[in-house]
């Protein structure tokens, strides 16, 4: 049964009435500590929402943007309620959507290509969260058919996942963990990956992702795919790079995460198909809201610091060759 779609939020940068509806996170025993880390309380939320809305209203190049609390709290929580950092991330997020339409436009689970990648289990969220409430996702990257798909399709799937859970209050506060299973990566995949592509992806991950990245795990990495993992590490900023790890197999990965959260095929409780079904239902329920994001707009055709050419150039990653490499014994 198809879930009922959610209403489309207002995209006017100065609406007549701001939508302040949002939930407080609850569930994990550690949620109090998480909120303390985020420096979040009622007065802080109210103050920063007002500041961010005023900033959007006065921004000379933002033309259309969501201003509802559910949306803006993604950026405030990702940056621990630093107004400056949150506003910069929102600006870069809007810019990234404009600079890379092949990644962010038409995030529609009914799109034939996205539907196919979802059907084969290329990427899906896990049904349960870890003890801290982190959103968990598993990407079997080698299932990307290099004869049919490119890295753009991989990026679209990751954007679909990120936006489908963007309003999830626990994900906003506790963050996300992504597991990349590389066992199906073959030599042919090298034709769709390059250092320039990895650098573009890292620009976005470093500067414009409105979520707390708690961990990135690579598992079952064949020797021929190590250059992809190490190449990406070279462009990620130090904070994210230090949260990356490599595991030889799922037994070793189980030392770092709760294995019961994984699909049954990898030692968890529920079969992969159940996780995939829940993910598709989530994407369907939020479909209209995700498609409405295409109507947000920022003007990048000017010569100011956040112009089309300069917007994402302050990447914090190191140069190729200077990064900490992950190696197999």
Automatic annotation (TrEMBL):
Residues 110-274 form the CRAL-TRIO domain. One of its GO terms (molecular function) is phosphatidylinositol bisphosphate binding. InterPro entries: CRAL-TRIO_dom, CRAL-TRIO_dom_sf, CRAL/TRIO_N_dom, CRAL/TRIO_N_dom_sf. Signal peptide: none annotated. Pfam families: CRAL_TRIO. One of its GO terms (cellular component) is membrane. This is CRAL-TRIO domain-containing protein. It comes from Anopheles quadriannulatus (Mosquito).
């Amino acid at each position: 049964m198809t879930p009922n779609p959610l209403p489309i939020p207002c995209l006017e940068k100065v609406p007549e009435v701001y939508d302040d509806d949002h939930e407080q996170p609850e569930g994990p025993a550690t949620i109090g500590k998480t909120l303390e880390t985020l420096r979040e309380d009622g007065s802080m939320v109210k103050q920063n929402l007002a500041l961010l809305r005023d900033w959007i209203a006065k921004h000379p190049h933002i033309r259309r943007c969501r201003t509802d609390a559910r949306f803006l709290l993604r950026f405030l929580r990702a940056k621990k309620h630093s107004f400056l950092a949150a506003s910069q991330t929102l600006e870069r997020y809007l810019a990234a959507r404009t600079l890379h339409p092949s990644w962010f436009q038409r995030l529609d689970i009914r799109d034939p290509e996205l539907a196919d990648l979802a059907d084969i289990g290329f990427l899906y969220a896990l049904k349960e969260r870890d003890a801290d409430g982190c959103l968990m996702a598993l990407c079997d990257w080698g299932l990307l058919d290099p004869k049919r798909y490119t890295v753009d399709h991989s990026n679209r799937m990751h954007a679909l996942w990120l936006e489908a859970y963007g309003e999830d209050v626990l994900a906003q506060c506790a963050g996300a963990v992504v597991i990349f299973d590389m066992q199906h990566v073959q030599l042919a995949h090298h034709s769709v990956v390059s250092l320039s592509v990895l650098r573009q992806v890292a620009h976005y991950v470093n500067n414009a992702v409105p979520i707390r990245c708690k961990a990135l795990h690579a598992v079952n990495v064949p020797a021929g795919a190590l250059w992809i993992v190490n190449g990406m590490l070279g462009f990620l900023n130090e904070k994210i790079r230090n949260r990356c790890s490599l595991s030889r197999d799922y037994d070793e990965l189980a030392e770092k995460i709760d294995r019961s959260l994984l699909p049954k095929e990898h030692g968890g409780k529920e079969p992969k198909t159940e996780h995939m079904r829940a993910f598709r239902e989530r994407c369907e329920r939020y479909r209209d809201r995700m498609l409405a994001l295409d109507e947000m707009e920022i003007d990048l055709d000017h010569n100011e610091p956040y112009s089309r050419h300069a917007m994402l150039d302050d990447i914090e990653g190191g140069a190729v060759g200077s990064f900490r490499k992950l190696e197999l014994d």
